[in-house]
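PROTEIN DESIGN WORKSHEET
SECTION A - STRUCTURE
LENGTH: 259
TOKENS:
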């Protein structure tokens, strides 16, 4: 019953995963995929979850033969691509990262091992794990659960991910008292390379104005003369993720390994 409910499908999936594998039969495994294909708005991370579930149940053959199980060709294509990516050798992924300039050389074995363990069969998560160890990857929650917002600290974290490029960037934020509606007002001031930048982010309760931050960083990095930028990765939730590098190279790698 859970599997056939649009609201409780993933509860049903958890139950299937919790059953001893010898009791999970062919009919049940096919039914999960059929019901999944009928869900609305299937995001990439949900496809990755299904793939991980079947790999954990040692049922990868159902993913390989997905076209014979479900009729939704779009979802079948998503599942096939994600499954194929999980089987891609890590050495090939590392080679792509080096050849596209995301990293200079193959990382130490310990870094690769940790990134693999944390990635849960997701190649893009593996890439982010490696880049995090190289200090050129950033992830945070756009909703802070605190007021007033600390834009200074956020921008300093960004600067630390640039390999020293923005080490001389100075930032400070003027915070106005709460207005009649109870919101704070912010004026972000940045000085870099003899140039001043002033930004007035929108007040959205305890959420960072990510668009304002992105625009500010774009202008500062343009002033640096470097081609590198903070490239945003779509997450599907309120977290935001960035890779610092040449946008064309970063996007090329993301497009290849994104489900």
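SECTION B - SEQUENCE
RESIDUE ASSIGNMENT:
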């Amino acid at each position: 019953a859970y599997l056939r409910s649009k609201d409780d499908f993933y509860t049903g999936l958890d139950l299937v995963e919790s059953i001893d594998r010898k009791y999970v039969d062919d009919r049940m495994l096919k039914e999960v995929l059929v019901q999944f294909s009928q869900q609305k708005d299937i995001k990439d991370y949900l496809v990755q979850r299904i793939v991980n579930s079947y790999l954990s149940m040692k049922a990868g053959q159902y993913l390989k033969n997905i076209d014979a199980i479900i009729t939704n060709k779009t979802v079948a294509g998503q599942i096939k691509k994600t499954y194929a990516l999980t089987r891609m050798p890590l050495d090939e992924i590392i080679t792509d990262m080096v050849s596209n300039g995301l990293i200079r050389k193959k990382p130490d074995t310990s870094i690769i091992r940790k990134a693999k363990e944390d990635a849960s069969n997701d190649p893009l998560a593996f890439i982010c794990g490696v880049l995090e160890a190289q200090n050129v990857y950033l992830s945070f929650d756009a909703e802070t659960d605190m007021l007033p917002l600390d834009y200074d600290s956020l921008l300093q974290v960004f600067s630390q991910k640039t390999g020293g490029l923005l080490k001389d960037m100075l930032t400070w934020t003027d915070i106005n008292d709460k207005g009649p509606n109870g919101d704070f007002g912010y004026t972000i001031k940045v000085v870099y390379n003899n140039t001043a930048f002033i930004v007035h982010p929108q007040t959205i309760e305890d959420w960072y104005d990510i668009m304002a931050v992105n625009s500010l960083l774009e202008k500062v990095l343009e002033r640096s003369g470097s081609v590198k930028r903070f490239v945003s990765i779509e997450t599907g939730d309120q977290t935001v993720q960035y890779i610092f590098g040449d946008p064309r190279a970063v996007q090329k790698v993301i497009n290849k390994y994104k489900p």
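SECTION C - NOTES
The mean pLDDT is 93.
Strands lie at 137-141, 170-176, 185-192, 195-199, 229-233, 239-245.
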